[in-house]
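Can't paste images in this forum, so I'm doing it all in text. The chain is below; anyone willing to post the predicted structure tokens underneath?
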Amino acid sequence: MKRLLHFSRMLVLTGLLMGNLPGGWAVYAQTPAPLSAEEVMQRAVERAESSDSHIARPNYLYHKHTITEELDTKGRLKEHKEKLYQVMVESGLSYIRLIQINGQSLSVGELKKEDAREAAERAKLADAKPDSKGDNRENFLTRELVAKYKLTLLEQKMIGGRATYVVAFEPKSGELPVKRLTDRFANRMAGTVWIDVEDFELAKAEIHLQGEVALWGGIVGTLKRCNYTLMRTRLPDGTWFNSFSHGVFEGRKLLEPMLVKTMSESSNFQKVALAGH
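Text version of the structure:
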């Protein structure tokens, strides 16, 4: 028995030694190489642009509550507006319907206008290309957008009990292309994004402007400050939704100074079964 135990220990020791030698017998699981910031964002964009991530998404119904406040140059409230929407996610597309303004239900006339607007929106989306990846209400990550920025992987951090890659971004040096009005903003944006390690979904974003942006040469107005935060939530079935956002926008609209604060919060997510699904 002692000889057998001794022989067994020798086998284990030999196996450990051979496993540490080139061509050894032992096979160990290799720790995957850490991803670069570019690889993290590439996978996030692939996820965002994948038709499966939109079309295969379950049908949902939820509420979206928004607040918009306009303030004067001294920070005093000039206007406060609250809106409540009902959002229907159907076959990868989302349809938003206004149901309350400042806590009051819409009038008959306003409801008719909403019906007409929703019908027109559905018709427009129905006429879209068959390979359409959705209406992008829940996503803004594209290859074209990400290509504008220098990326830096800072760390991994837990958000909502899930691990995320923390990636900082800032505009690349040199003149960036301007194909549409939104590029004027995108070319000056910097900040940080948190990308879910498992799903490669955007979990959080903090964005700010690095410099003033002029609209139509400054004739229409300018935006000199923009601070925007977006939070996203993963539901138990793996579906992601924008759940909260907050923004501060300061500049000039025509000849008047402008200071606007916005807030948006989504809640009461309910999975629904539609006829024919």
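Confidence is low (pLDDT under 50) at residues 1-29, 130-134. Helices lie at 2-19, 37-49, 52-55, 108-126, 143-146, 181-186.
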